[in-house]
Structure of GIY-YIG domain-containing protein:
Amino acid sequence: MLPSRYTVVDVETTGLSPYDNRIIEIGIVRVEDGEIVETFESLVNPRASLSSTITRITGITSADIVDAPYFEDIAIEVISLFEDSILVAHNAAFDLQFLHFEFKRLGISFHPKELCTVRLSRRLFPEHKRHGLDAQIERYGLTIHDRHRALGDTLATQQLLEVFSELLDEDTFNKHVKTLLSQPTKISKTIWQDIDDLPTAPGVYTFTDEKKKPLYIGKSIDIKSRVNQHFSRARFDQKERELCSKTKHITYEKTAGEIGALVLESRKIKDVSPPYNRALKRVQSMVIAVIHTSSSGYKTLTYERVSYISSQRLGSIAGVYSSIKQAKAKVAEISKEYCLCNKLLGIEAGSGACFSYHLGKCSGACVNEGTVISYNKKFDHAFAESMMLEWPFGDYVIIGETNVGNTFTDILYVDSWRVFDSLDDRDDKTPIDVDTYRILLRSFKSYESSSPVSFVVQKKKITADQLKVFLQSS
């Protein structure tokens, strides 16, 4: 049995993020006791022109919305249609987010009970892989006019809900509907408030569950916009949908800029290892490709599995990998590109010339052909991007990063590619964090004197050109 009162809604929008975009059309059908009692549709002026992509999808042009009412002009009529009623939508989280933000801008709270026909379809018919509206229309032969227009999609969704109720026995259908309605709203009221309170500034944000346990940690130069993207992508991405449904709170920590956010994110992820973070989790061990010199003077590689990298090894590591297999596969690619010797690189055993030499793809270092100088020069060029450089400065470096508006500055104390909270915290035994190394190196290489970042070396602020000289010397 269907709910006695429900209101089906669909919105067309200028984009996917409800924070950055607006509603351009809304269609609503209110149903009471199985009968449609009211229908509403309206174009909405979003105070912005429409992209060609949106026009191609919806057929709505910028000219169509010039004289359309603003959302505030129709807000009271819209919200009245949801009074004492359950909101029904296909991908309800999407429509609900946009309506929430539109009403929020007007100072109106909007948190109706929701029933999502996508979620209902997945529960009722798990054997189907596709649950989008196009798939449902094709599967059940629904009658639809104006696909990708708000009222057309609304009427299709209302038909779909009726089809579901007819296909299953009453007890089974009611059980699943009741379960979805009794579950907390996919995006809870606390999440709405947390999102509203997020800053449009750089920093690190944390999604936590009902026990305040971190689920995911991320960073952005605009925290609010980035978090909204997670919830917008949940409409299409299963992993994002799962993460957002489990998230009950969002916290954040502002930084002055991107460098501070990158370093803070890396630290936090390694401290707590959230289940939805993958790339930056603390690893128990890694494989390093170590540079040696043969008796003939050629540069060679061996592979070691290590649990940490000390600062003393900087300059002798050609690359860091997750496994021996990955290391040798990557080195083999480099060898092929630069015509290096697979034997000297430790990826081929045996005596005599390597296999690539016989194919004309090795310059002959394995049989002492060619000069040591030219081979080693190719080696250095081949591993220039992956090699872990020696610390190019004689002492520590202070990085100052100032936020937009010049209201505060983050200070990072860096020594041998390691970040410390203060100079007193420096410890030579602290291992190198590979992710932090990469973040810092990328920041150093991209530094421009006009950027809101300053580098102090030996108590003197240095220019971008001076920084490049230091890097070239390492």
About this structure: The longest helix spans residues 150-167. Residues 286-382 form one domain.
